């Protein structure tokens, strides 16, 4: 059988997932290891290699035509290196070179995890059929990726669309990226919880002080919890509108743990977006929840690799 699968990797601070993905986005084989995030670089690479070797030992590996990697970032696709914030042992680490030691001559595509999520949502999810889209992950951080003119737009280094570091408050809190008032400093889960606590919100008897607990309180009518989510929604709306003004996206897809709050987030987000996206060419911009779930990183890494390699049988846009 001719090669008709993509070997995909989804690398984050807690897990390294691998899969073989077919032209319809189906995962025909899986492998997974915990990320030894606090270990040195070679140790983390050995976990990646273990995932690849498990896939390679299966019956479908001979059908692999390319490798796609979606990694926590920053990444640099131009050099094949990664420097994930949550994996300290990888700083300028030659990940693509390390992967090639196992996968041989297969072409390898590296993108950031937000770009991978965008690729997945455009190929099989909420942005399917859309020509121009921003897809976002709102979780412990805020990332994203762009689809422009019907194709994934990763940029030269694989990071394009990183909306989390658009500044929406020039006098806001300093961000580790060097900026101030970044979307991530306002809209990420930890900052939603921090802001609610500072304003007087208190966790329930179980002591859960996460953004999910704040969302539950907001749902129950707590005004402080609701206000913290409204502030996050305002920051997201400002970033989305700025992106729309630049590149005329028609839809923004929002996923990640914070998006699990549902209407606690999406209600104020849509209202705030109506205040920010006011120019005639962005007024019809819509916001949708992501639909691809936990496999988005794998499916998106496969889609990015298929687009880069122009593989027949993968209609990824």
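Q: What amino acid sequence fits the structure above?
A:
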């Amino acid at each position: 059988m001719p090669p008709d699968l993509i070997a995909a990797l989804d690398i984050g601070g807690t897990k390294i997932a691998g899969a073989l993905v077919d032209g319809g986005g189906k995962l025909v084989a899986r492998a997974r290891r915990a990320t030894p995030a606090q270990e040195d670089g070679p140790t983390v690479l050995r976990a990646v290699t273990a995932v690849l070797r498990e896939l390679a030992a299966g019956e479908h590996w001979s059908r692999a035509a390319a490798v796609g990697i979606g990694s926590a970032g920053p990444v640099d696709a131009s050099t094949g290196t990664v420097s994930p914030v949550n994996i300290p042992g990888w700083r300028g680490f030659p990940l693509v070179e390390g992967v090639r030691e196992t996968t041989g001559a297969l072409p390898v595509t590296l993108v950031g995890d937000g770009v991978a999520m965008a690729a997945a949502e455009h190929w099989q999810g909420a942005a399917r059929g859309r020509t121009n889209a921003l897809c976002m992950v709102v979780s412990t951080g805020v990332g994203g990726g762009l689809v422009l003119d019907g194709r994934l737009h990763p940029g030269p280094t694989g990071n394009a669309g990183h909306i989390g570091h658009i500044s929406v408050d020039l006098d806001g809190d300093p961000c580790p990226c060097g900026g101030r008032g970044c979307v991530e400093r306002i809209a990420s889960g930890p900052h939603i919880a921090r802001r609610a606590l500072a304003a007087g919100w208190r966790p329930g008897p179980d002591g859960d002080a996460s953004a999910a607990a704040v969302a539950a309180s907001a749902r129950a009518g707590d005004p402080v919890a609701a206000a913290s989510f409204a502030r996050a929604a305002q920051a997201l709306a400002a970033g989305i509108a700025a992106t729309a003004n630049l590149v005329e996206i028609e839809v923004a897809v929002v996923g990640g743990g914070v998006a699990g709050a549902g209407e606690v987030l999406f209600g104020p987000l849509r209202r705030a977006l109506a205040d920010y996206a006011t120019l005639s060419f962005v007024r019809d911009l819509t916001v949708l929840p992501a639909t691809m779930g936990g496999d988005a990183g794998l499916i998106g890494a496969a889609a990015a690799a298929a687009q880069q390699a122009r593989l027949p049988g993968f209609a990824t846009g």
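Q: And what stands out in the fold?
A: Residues 128-291 form a domain with the Nucleotidyltransferase; domain 5 fold (CATH 3.30.420.40).
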